[in-house]
Amino acid sequence: MPLDLAAALSKGINGLEDALLASFPLADFGAPTLVMRQGDSTYVGQFRHRMGDQVAQLTLVAPEPQEGDSPIWTRLLEALAFEAGKRGAHLLSAEIDEGHAAFPSFRMAGFAVYSRQVILRREPASVQRGQPDMLRPACSQDAIGISVLWANTVPRLLQQAEPLPDPDYSGGLVYERDGQIAAYLSVTDGKSGIVIKPYFHPEIYEQTSDIILAALARTSHAEDLPVYLYARAYQDWLQRVLEEVEFVPWTHQALMVKYTTVRAERAEVAALHPLEASRLRPPVANGPLPLHKLSTHNGRAPANERSGGGFNQK
Fold this sequence. Notes:
The protein has an eleven-stranded mixed beta sheet, with helices on both faces. The model is unreliable at 22-28, 279-289 and 303-314 (pLDDT under 50). A hairpin with a 2-residue loop joins strand 1 (33-38) and strand 2 (41-48). Helices cover 24% and strands 26% of the residues. The chain has helices at residues 5-11, 15-22, 70-86, 103-108, 143-153, 156-159, 208-218, 236-243, 303-306; strands at residues 33-38, 41-48, 55-62, 91-96, 112-122, 136-137, 173-177, 180-189, 194-200, 227-232, 248-259. The chain is globular, with a radius of gyration of 29 Å. It contains nine helices and eleven strands. By secondary structure, the protein is an alpha+beta fold.
C-alpha cells in the first residue's frame, strides 16, 4: 500500500516490488524499514528521511491492510514514528484514502488529518495549445523567490507538513510576472507517469490554465505517459481550472501527520552584555546581593528612612 503517492505514480513500484525492496537494509539510503512478525505473518513499514530534515514521509506498508488488522498496524505505525523521531524528524506524514481499511489504524496511532487533496489525471495525449516559452527551468538563484511564494500561498499549519521543494529544484518550472516568481511547478518525471505539485499566487488565476499547458508542452513524455497534478484543499479553485485542460479527478486523499516530538518549556537564563569598568557590575547570580550604605544629603536621611520604610542604617 503506497503512502507517498507522488513517488508511486512516477516510479511505478507495485506492491510486490515494495515488499522485496523493504527486505533489504536501506537505512543508510534514507529509507528505514521495519519488519514486525505476528505468528506466521510478517508486516513491513518503510519511510523516507534525509538526515537533518524535520519531516519524514511514510512510503509504504505491506501487505495492504485489511479489515480487522487495526491493532497490528497501529503498533507498526507507532514504531515507525518512534524510529523517525530517533533520526531527528519532528513529524511523520502519509497520504491515505479516508475510506481505506488502514485509516482507523492511523487515527489510533496518533495521526491527524492536516489537509485533504484531490489528485487529477490527464491521459497521454499531444498538447495543442501550450506555449512553452511562458516558463523557464528553476535554478538555485530562485530559492528566495520560491520561498516567498511558498510562504505566501501555503497555509501556516500546512507549512509544517509540506516543506519547501527540493533545494536543487531539479525539474521545477518557474513563471515570472513583473520580475517576481508568481508560480512554481515541482515536476517529477518517472517511468510510469509525471507528477506535478503546483504553487500558484492567487493573482494569476486567469493565467493558470495557460501555465499548466505550457508545463505539459515542456514535458516531452506528456504524450506518452499520464500526468497527475495535486490540488490541495486550499487550492480548491484549481480543480475547475484543470478540468478545462483535460484533467479529471482521479482520487481523493487525506494528508495525515503525526508529531514525533512534544513541546517542552524551560527557563532560560539571559546573559547580560558586558558593562564598562566605570559602571556598576551586575550582581552575582548565585550569591547574596550586597547591601550598600545609604548616602545622606545635607545631613538628612533619605526620604524612605524618614518615613520608616526601607533599611535603617546604624
